[in-house]
Each structure stands twice: as C-alpha cells, then as structure tokens.
Amino acid sequence: MRTQVAIIGGGPSGLLLGQLLHRQGIDNIVLERKTRDYVLGRIRAGILETGLVDLMRKAGVSERMDRESFVHDGTVITDGNTHFEINFKELTGDHVIVYGQTELTRDLYDAREECGAQTVFNTENVQIHDADSDAPYVTYEVDGEQHRIDCDYVAGCDGFHGVSRKTIPEDVRNEYEKVYPFGWLGILSETPPVHDELIYANSERGFALCSMRNENLSRYYIQCSLTDSPEDWSDDAFWEELKRRIPAEMADKLVTGPTIEKSIAPLRSFVTEPMRWGRLFLCGDAAHIVPPTGAKGLNTAASDIHYLFEGLSAFYANGDASGLDTYSEKALSRIWKAERFSWWMTNILHRFPDQTDFDIKMQRADLDFLRSNRDAQKVMAQNYIGLPY
Ligand code: APR
Ligand code: PHB
Known about the structure:
Layout: E1 5-8, H1 12-23, E2 28-31, H2 36-40, E3 47-49, H3 50-58, H4 63-68, E4 70-72, E5 74-79, E6 82-87, H5 88-92, E7 96-98, H6 101-115, E8 118-120, E9 124-129, E10 137-142, E11 145-150, E12 153-156, H7 164-167, E13 174-189, E14 199-202, E15 208-214, E16 217-224, H8 235-245, H9 248-251, E17 259-273, E18 276-277, E19 280-282, E20 288-289, H10 297-318, H11 322-325, H12 327-349, H13 357-372, H14 374-385
Parallel strand pairs: 1-2, 1-12, 2-8, 5-14, 12-19
Antiparallel strand pairs: 3-7, 4-7, 5-6, 9-10, 10-11, 13-16, 13-17, 14-15, 15-16, 17-20, 18-19
The protein binds adenosine-5-diphosphoribose (APR) and P-hydroxybenzoic acid.
C-alpha cells in the first residue's frame, strides 16, 4: 500500500490533519490503535480557541459545532470568597467557544467516513521505518496480519504514549518535563452549570473549576491528591468539597445531582524537541503536554496541525519545502508560550504540598495584581483566547 502522508493516531490531531489534507487532495491514511468508540469514550476539555474553530471550518467540519457550541466572552477567577472577571471580549476583541472535544472528534470521524478517506482501527505494533530517508514506510499488524504503507511523510499524532516520539533517536531528542504534585478529580453531571461562564477557583482547600458542555451538562473539577482514586469520592463528598472551594454566593446556586462520569487526571508539563526528524513530524500530545488549567491541550495541537498542513500543502503544490523545514521551530515557539501560560495559571490557582507561607503570599500578590491591573488582565486574556499562529 502507498500514500502521501501516513498519520499515526486517530485522535483530534490526526483526524483534523487528515481532513485538511484530504480536502487539499493530499492522500493520507490514519492508523488508530483503538476503535472509534473507544476514542470517543474519552472525556476531554471543551474550550476552543478561534484558531481551532477556523481550522475546523477550513476542514469543512463545523456545521454541528456552529450549531451547538456557545461563545464565552470571559471567565471568572475566584480567590477565597471573592471573585473577578477577565473580559476577553473587552480586552482583546476575541472570545473562546465551548464545544466538547469528544464532539469535535466525533464530527471529524463522521466527516472522514463520509469522504471515504481510509482509517485503519485496532492497529498493533505500529513501527515507523527509515524516517530519516527519502523513502519512509510504516508497518503494523491487524488481527495478526502484517501490513506495510510506503509514504512520503509520517505525521506522528499518536499522543503522549505513542510510538512516534520514541522513533526519534534519544541522542536527537531533548525532553523537558515538570510533573505536578496533585491531580484533578473531574465529574460530569446532567445538571445546569452554576454560572454562564467558567469559574477558575483558588481556595485554601485547593483548586476547583466549574465548566460545562451545554445548558444541562456540567463539568466540574477539584484538585485532589495523587494517592486518591475516583472510588474514594462519593458524589456527596465531591459536591460538598466543591461548594467549600467556590464563593458562598456561587455555592448556594450550585445544582447538584448524580455524576455520570468521575475520573482523576494527573498534571504534567512536557515538551520534546525537535518536532521533526527527517520525514517524521510530531503533532499534538505526541510532542507536548500541558496541565489542563487554561485548556491549551487541543488548542496547541491545532497550531501544530496548521503549520504542518501549510507546509505539506506548499510542498505538494509547488515543491516548496520551506514550511516543512521551519515546522519544528514555528510550532515550538507557540507551544512554549502556551506551556508558560498553563504553568503560570496552574501555579497561581493551586495549593502545592510544599508551599511555604511566603509562596502563598506570592500567589496572592499575583492574583491581586491580576484583579486590579487591566494590563495584567489583557496579558492573561491574550494567552487564554490563544496567541496568533
Ligand atoms: N498506533 C496507533 N495509534 C496510537 C498509538 C499507536 N502506537 N498510540 C496511540 N495511538 C492513538 C491513541 O489511541 C489516540 O486515539 O493516537 C491517538 C492520540 O490522540 P490524543 O492522545 O487525543 O492526542 P491528540 O490527537 O494530539 O489530541 C490532543 O487530546 O489528550 C488530549 O489534552 C489533549 O486535548 C488534547 C488532545
Ligand atoms: C473542561 O471543560 O473540561 C475544561 C475547561 C477548561 C479547562 C480545563 C477543562 O481549563
């Protein structure tokens, strides 16, 4: 079998790249380790920057998103029992939209099936060969049968635990990592959101986040210990703790109910450099991870996909490889800014086990400056709505 671009990974990164390439007439195959249903069973964040929205429109996969998503012009930050708003619209003229990543991925799968582009599910033992040559190829197994795909390029969109990053020799790779000493316990409940915008809460008991998927599906998180498991938290215990971490006036309005999903995610900052090795390009979680504070995960994957799509399009259109040659540098420049922002938001909103009284004073000073200084709010808003591609 032969294709122009072999895409490893059928998550949002791989599917978005595949759809953009298909519409450009560039042949591609997606290899996905799991099944479509398994991929769609993952609960992920739901805040999209307008850059990602524009890419979905360019991919021709925005009809349901435009119909079902909603615009957020700002967000609320709380500090103990007080709160203030960061008004993105007023500060930057832009906004973010709320649309579940699972729904975005579903739309991309539907579009891929509709256009007849090839996706191979349940692939095992995917290996990338000769990526540093002019004739790379990928091998994989399905039901024990070995397959080979010869290609021009390989897009490694296979997430943090994938094979692509590890294909780059260790003496070529530089990895940067920070693991945070806590997790996020997240729940979904078929209840109306407590507020019409997100609430990022700093409290002496730890961080909390009030988010949503639609007017009757809420997503809440509380910072928890890494030794916790979801089973340690009854629904009642979760709701009581959440109420203690947000201002009383908001806690009084909180509509609780049975949770339909409960899980704990660890927090990490991670970047690998370079994001290209020969004819292999890493995109999304395969190359970088951010803590979810600030919702930058998918939005940084989106700018990778933008840069790689532009580079591949120029190459196939007129042999111009400049976009491919500058991909890693351009992608990393934006990624590191998103890493800093996500790290900063995590630091000012969470309680760290080893935090000293001085550290807490520094956190309060950061929050007080953000509350009282328009320029500080503008910097935060510019990062939150997404820096330019
Ligand atoms: N072979 C084939 N597929 C693989 C392999 C492999 N060896 N390893 C992983 N995969 C698949 C996974 O099953 C998954 O469906 O690659 C896909 C990677 O998808 P994601 O992990 O969602 O990464 P990405 O598409 O870059 O999306 C980034 O997802 O994790 C969130 O916060 C992150 O929002 C961000 C988004
Ligand atoms: C979510 O809705 O799941 C969400 C929103 C914002 C974040 C993280 C997660 O920063």
